[in-house]
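B., you asked whether I could sanity-check this one before it goes into the benchmark set. Here's the sequence:
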Amino acid sequence: MQAASLAGHRGGQITGIPMRQNQATFIGIGAQKCASTWLYGVLRQCPDVVVSDDKEVDFFSYYFDRGFEWYERNFASDTPRRHRGEISPSYFIHADAPARAADYNPDLHVFVSLRDPVSRAYSNHLHEARKGHITGANLTFETALDNNPLYVDQSRYATHLARWLDTFPAAQVHLFFQEEIHQDREAAAARVTDALGLPPLADFLDLQANESVRYRNAALGEGLWKMGHAARRAGLGRAVETAKALPGIRQMRAANREGMRDVVPPMAPETEARLAETFAPEVERLEALIGRKTPWSRFNAAP
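And here's what the prediction gave me:
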C-alpha cells in the first residue's frame, strides 16, 4: 500500500497549537493482534523518538482519569526528541478514545494496523488462551466465540476506523496491513519513519513477535524477556538478537516455548466460512473508507 495516510477521505490542516515539553505526537491504536508489537519495535529504534517503556499505556481508553501529567511521564527524556508516543490497541474500539485523543492533541499522528479479520479473531483467541484467561471447553474457538463477544467486534474494522476518520484529518491517519508488513518489513519500517517526517533507520533491526507461544517454565521465560528488554532499552538490541541466535541459547528458548496452536484446536472450516460471511460487509465498507482493496484474498476472490 502507499505509505503515509488516508488523505482523500477527510481534509484538514495541522493546527500548530503550541505543545507541552513531553506531549505525545503520535499514538498507535491497533487493532489487537495486528502487528502493534512490531510497530512499537520500529519506533523504539528511531533516535529522535521516545516511546513508553510499557508498550500499552491505555490512557485514552482505561486511564483517562489520571490526567495529562501522568500520561506524559511516560515520554520524559533527558534529551530533546522530535516525537513521543505509545501503542495501545484498546484505543481502536473504545468509543471515547478518538475524541479524547483529539482534545489532547489534534495534531496527533494515528497509526492503524489491520489484518484479515477472520485470522485476527482466531489470533485473539490464541492470545487469551496463552494469557490463561480461558480454560477447559473455552479453549475450543467455537465455544469461545460465545464466551468473548470482542473476538468478533474487534474485527469490525470499518465501524471502528470510521470514528477515527471522523475525528482526525485523514493525512494524520496512517494505515498498515500486517500482510504487507510481512512481505517487506524494511519497506514498512520506512513508511513509519516517513509518516513522522524522520529519515529511514540506518541500521533497521527486524524484530518479530511470536504471537502464539507460551512459556513452559514461566519464571525462566519472564527472566529472559526482562533481560532482553533492559538490554534493548540500553541500545543493545542487535546484541540481544545475536545472543538469541547462539546455539545454546536458541535451544534453551525453543525447549521452553510451547506453540498455542498445539494446545488450542484449529478453527472449524464452517466457522471460518461463517465469519468470512459476517465480516464481508465490514470489509466492503472498509475498502470504501480507505479507497483501495485490502490484501485479504478470501474477500477479493473473483465471483
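One thing to flag: Confidence is low (pLDDT under 50) at residues 8-15. Otherwise nothing jumped out at me.
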